[in-house]
Prior knowledge:
mainly alpha
Amino acid sequence: MWASVALPVLFLVITWQVLADGPLLDPDERLGLELAGRGPAGLTDLFADLGNMQVAVPVLACAVVVSWLRRARRAALCAVLTMAAVPALVVPLKLWTDRRGPLTEATGYYPSGHTTTAMVAYGAAALLLAPYVKRSWMTLVAAVLLTAATSVGLVLRGYHWPLDVVAAWCLGGVLLIALRVGSRIGQPPK
């Protein structure tokens, strides 16, 4: 699967650029400053808040309960462990990279924890619920839309640079691939 190679490579390239203050940062910061403050503040705040742990994790918790009750306990446990991996990976990365935010002198903005949280929580929920929904593709569409809305809200509010969000997509994608492989979600039984 191409994504299992492309996502970590792209994440490593972006992280290298952040650490080395590489040439990708200038256009990233120009774009981020151009986009910051655009759109209706109430709506972009709402979108950004979709990545809060208090919003995204309860959605995943409901899907975990459904999976557990349907005897998909391995998948439910793997989803919980995948969600627990988000802060375990993101917090040290934020401390290590020490990237300044768009509209602040504060640091620790890379990668976007809200985007990673949204992608893993909604993506894992979609994977867990897909076997029990008539139109399973709709769970994936919902997860993608919620993650995209979070990402757009974070950039338009000026909470994150665009590359912070792209890196979070890569990290979240790697975690969801690991979840799918480790839990055997969507794979035929042996």
